[in-house]
Specification:
By secondary structure, the chain is mostly beta strands. It is built from no helices and 30 strands.
């Protein structure tokens, strides 16, 4: 039996942190919604089952010391797989994390961020799929993601695909850090510029099947521009577009210990 989904709307603007706790929560925004908080997450949503947050109104979420947006599915709710779906287009700025998403259910974790995402002390986007039965982890960005640490950090324990599609620029100590400990494949498609001031621009480790990395723009790193390690059963592919620039040019490291 599938559970009823409570539909909730966020409206108005202010400095009070907002917290929603409801199983199968379907949260949307009204025009003018926004939160600027200090010592708490600007917006937190948690519950079992399908947890969804959709903002197509350019809503601004800011927290000076915590997460701008924190979304958690605590697990399955009866026959309803636990999942997290985030679709936003407004500016998100967190002292800790811009977007933090954690899925403990058997469903998928999906993040689509069309606006800017920023973290002043941590990761820009941090996503974890903890359930080994989960359907996959997908992150797609259209705006610039800026972070003190890693712009996009993704860890997948699920059986589905781990996919990162970065159309916007990524700026941080590191660009993309992705670890796939599940049984599926990994695809990284970075068409935006990546600038890593201290570490690797792209660092991917795969224990599943195929691992594919594609870059189409300038990739600059203090250490390794592209580091791809495949412990999986599939093929390792790294491709840079003809007009892409990788700096330092020699800093592309691929490792395939299974071959």
């Amino acid at each position: 039996m599938h559970r009823h989904r409570p539909r909730l709307e966020c409206s108005g603007s202010g400095s009070t942190a907002q917290s929603i706790k409801a199983d199968n929560a379907d949260v949307k925004t009204r025009p003018g919604f926004g939160v600027s908080a200090t010592n708490k997450n600007a917006l937190s949503i948690s519950g079992a089952g399908q947890i969804t947050y959709t903002d197509k109104n350019g809503s601004s979420l800011t927290s000076t010391s915590r997460d701008a947006l924190n979304v958690v599915s605590t697990g399955d709710d009866g026959a309803t797989d636990g999942s997290v779906t985030i679709d936003v287009d407004g500016p998100l700025t967190g002292g800790s994390t811009g977007i933090s998403a954690n899925n403990k259910g058997a469903g998928a974790l999906t993040i689509k961020a069309g606006g800017t995402v920023e973290s002043t002390s941590g990761n820009g986007i941090q996503a974890v799929n903890k359930n080994t039965q989960s359907k996959g982890l997908t992150i797609a960005t259209g705006g610039t993601v800026t972070a003190k640490r890693t712009a996009i950090s993704a860890t997948n324990y699920g059986s589905g695909l781990l996919s990162i599609d970065a159309d916007g620029n990524l700026v941080g100590a590191s660009g993309i850090s992705a670890i796939n400990r599940g049984a599926g494949a990994v695809t990284i498609d970075a068409s935006g510029k990546i600038t890593a001031s201290e570490g690797n621009a792209i660092a991917v480790t795969n224990y599943g099947t195929n691992l594919s990395v594609l870059t189409g723009n300038t990739v600059t790193a203090a250490k390794t521009a592209i580091s791809a390690t495949n412990y999986g059963t599939g093929k390792l592919t790294v491709h840079t577009a003809a007009d892409a620039v990788v700096r330092p040019a020699s800093a592309r490291r691929t490792t395939d210990p299974t071959r």
